[in-house]
Amino acid sequence: MEWDRIRKRPEDYVGANLLGYDECAKTFSWTQARGLLDGLPGGGLNIAHEAIDRHLKAGRGNKLALRWIARDDSKRDFTYAALGAAVNRFANVLAQRGIRKGDRVFSLLGRVPELYIAALGTLKNGSVFSPLFSAFGPEPIKARMMIGDARALITTEAFYRRKIEPWRKELASLKHVFLTECSSSLLPDTIDLAAALAQAPDLFETVRTAPEDMALLHFTSGTTGKPKGAVHVHEAVVAHNITGKLALDFHPDDIFWCTADPGWITGTSYGIISPLTNGVTMIIDQAEFDAERWYRILQDQKVTVWYTAPTAIRMLMKVGADIAKRFDLSKLRLMSSVGEPLNPEAVVWSVEAFGKPFHDNWWQTETGGIMITNFLSMDVKPGSMGRPLPGIAAGIVEHIEGGDVREITKPMAMGELALRPGWPSMMRAYLNEEQRYRKCFVSGWYLTGDLAMRDSEGYYWFVGRSDDVIKSAGHLIGPFEVESALMEHKAVAEAGVIGIPEPTAGEVVKAYVALKDGFEPSEALRKELLGHARQRLGPAVAPKDIAFRQNLPKTRSGKIMRRLLKARELGLPEGDISTLESEER
Ligand code: WT7
């Protein structure tokens, strides 16, 4: 087999939605894509309407929308009609309590049906949905809910006790806390969600949202400062819908499994909205990764389209292709991967294990939907992220004097990956951070912060990030947030946090700490700091390792030089250290 190219034969893509890339890209129009959806009377648009009510109106209510597989393997099925009724109840629960259009509703839940119902019910009520990852500790949760001005929260009683109650009083805007999995004696100032849903009517008229009304708030991490709340509007559904057709090749009979958690944007754009607007059946697994369990789900649920992430694929590789071959995966027709670099070996391995390749694709919290992908009908080049979606203009740019950028068209020249703004699911703001938002746009481009190259056939190749943000197991982690949590400990004078390469997770978080006078490095203190960070930040964000240093390398202006920490950790050249303040080491 060729390593540099996996050739597609016509029988590999019979009936694909995208055939003839160049023609499709040329004739594509967002207005036409918008025409595939209903809209609300008077020019309104609402994501939940497009995801559910449109199908009910068209007589597709009995179609299975969602099959939920619980950790213990029990299952719950929701047809579009049943999901719609539950969503309406939830919308009524919000409306009855005066939660209105534009109000921020947060969720902190595992992958349980309530999460999906809350997301859609919130949108139907015209409120803004903001999902949090359930493996976050109290600090990241508090920071995000403060920035987002949370008015309501849906979470479990256990999460509430551990992660919210200790600081709840500091957030005056948070008026309503709905709890699932409650014990019989309800905690003060909380509402039993199941009881509230049971008494709410299952009819609800969609609140008339305009296309540019805020719908979703997804937090993402930067190099410095607080997390950024990327604002997405109802119009984004136009992109969610069409990219599902073109990149994931959704057809009405598909059974789709997106393994991403809705605490991150992949799990909402493609774990809720896109499959539902496309009317497919989606599988949700409550449990965490387990190779045998995953193969069993693919087989038993007859999954046809599977969307997962490189960390999971690398874990499957570890257990070997033979296990995959024990299962009947003949229904699987498209496998897609996103979130971090997918090693070429993983693509080649997937052909061995499944008889077909993973299709890598690229996008970000800011872009709201898939921007670059390996299409079903096109050859896959292992290691490449593929080509831009129709309607998306991408380029490689270099920074020039005066703060501008210009496009580099030479094949395989490295530069920053940039996109021409204007597609429907582009973020409309970083909430209350005009400055940080504006900085993303230069010379008519949106700058992604990723370094990449484009080959002569228009395929894009990921090179790395241009900043210090860490990608661990597909999750974006802001070093500043981790450093801040460490600094709260009484022994810590300074902290510098970097990602170090690790074969399965891509990167893992490592912290360097300088201690205050009166504290001495010791194994006990190291363990204490690891525990402190884990308790504040949660296991998904906390460092896996901490090293003590007398001093951390800093610029003359006092900024910790994470790049230098990394170069030293990895034994790489130290690069330009002209701004380094003298260090006593
Ligand atoms: C960053 C965005 C994908 C949406 C959910 C994550 C990295 C994403 C790839 C890929 C290499 C990738 C980039 C990007 N990334 N996809 N196929 N190959 N890197 O969104 O958390 O905002 O992360 O993930 O660095 O900028 P996110």
Give a brief rundown of this model:
The chain is an alpha/beta fold.
Overview of this structure, please?
By secondary structure, the chain is of the alpha/beta class. It folds into two domains: 10-454, 3-Layer(aba) Sandwich (Rossmann fold); 467-584, ANL, C-terminal domain (GMP Synthetase, Chain A, domain 3, 2-Layer Sandwich), CATH 3.30.300.30. The protein has 18 helices and 28 strands. Strand 21 and strand 22 (445-454) form a beta hairpin. The longest helix is centred in the first third of the chain and has 17 residues, at 80-96. 49% of the residues are buried. The mean pLDDT is 96. The structure holds 5'-O-[(S)-butoxy(hydroxy)phosphoryl]adenosine. 5'-O-[(S)-butoxy(hydroxy)phosphoryl]adenosine binds at residues 220, 264-266, 338-342, 360-365, 385, 448-450, 462, 465, 471, 476.
Envelope shape: globular
Judging by the overall fold, what is the CATH architecture of the largest domain?
3-Layer(aba) Sandwich
Biggest sheet strand order reads 2-1-11-10-12-13-14-15-16
Q: Would you identify the CATH H-level superfamily of the largest domain?
A: ANL, N-terminal domain
Characterize the biggest β-sheet: 9 strands, mixed
Strand content: 15-25%
